[in-house]
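INFO batch 0412 | record 1 of 1 | parsing
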Amino acid sequence: NADLADSSNILSGHQASFFHAGILAKRIAADTEAHAQGTQCAWLVADQDINEPGSVSYPDIDQRDRLVRRTWQIVPANPNVPTCMRMMTTPTPAPNISPALPSSVQTGLNAMFEALADAPGRSVAERFAQATELLLESRLETPCTLLYASQLLESSPGMDILERIVAEPLECARAWNDAIRSVPRSARELRIDDQDIDASEAPIWTLDDEG
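INFO prediction complete | emitting tokens
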């Protein structure tokens, strides 16, 4: 995105989904900081992940007047396929919940369904990310640019990074290993063979046609 490349930005992100409270707090904090600094906000959608944004938990009251947790399956589950490679299907309408619960619960579920119906995008990741932004746009100060992890290497900055990795694979692997040592258990170290570059690893992964 040319506008983002030529300016300072507040960048954060998460997988495509309707946010739980912790991620919502992060999104609000990014918006607040961007507004305070008079800069832009960008949100990186980790759409190469295999999370299930279509499985939404909600409260309800059962026939014995007990508070229970139910799941609204908005789109069919498809484990082990990244959300960027799953084509969006017609969303299942929001469930009708017990009137004994606060009306805000039903209102929220209905709003989520309407946002999904109105949001642009072909993939599950795009549709859920755009729907989330539709729900937030009237509540936050700064418009947010969505970036998708699966498309980063297709951008000019991404290609620059990729070319440098190809040119200096061992230096890249060492930088990776140094970085992850500062955060224990964040990722495994890459294999480095100073005698055989082809036996060494670089932090590049690809998705095949099967995802």
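INFO post-check: The radius of gyration is 21 Å.
INFO record closed
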